[in-house]
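It is worth pausing here to work through a concrete case rather than discussing structure prediction in the abstract. The textbook approach is simple: state the sequence, then state the predicted structure, then interpret. We follow exactly that order.
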Amino acid sequence: MIRYDYIKGIFGALRELDMTDDDRYMLVRQFSGGRTASLKELHPEELKALLQTLNQERLKRTKKMRAKVVHYLCLMGYTRPDGRPDLDRINGFVQKRCGNANPKRKPLHFLSPAECRKVVTIVEQMYRKHTLQK
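Step two, the predicted structure:
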């Protein structure tokens, strides 16, 4: 049962990272030491290591996207008087003004990579409009 959970998690992470089947086969070969290209033939510890690596990559990409959202919103004035990002206002923006990109109205830190990508697109478009108006 644990193997199924690992495999399910790996497929979810691969999907969120937009990896192809070829990428998956390459990763499986790498984690099995060239022994196999099939997830089903990996040992439990290999599955666990692969899932941890994919999750770290997913977190790294999401962190970059969150930083981009904070950066653009700060450039548009979402800052405290001391110049630091006003995270309460930023989370309020993400929860209330991002509509379909964030249907569950989650704070910025809890968005999935797919949701975060949509929010980045919205904020980039707003920033372009904001800079054209000046």
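Step three, interpretation. Residues 2-58 form one domain. Residues 8 and 52 are 13 Å apart (CA to CA).
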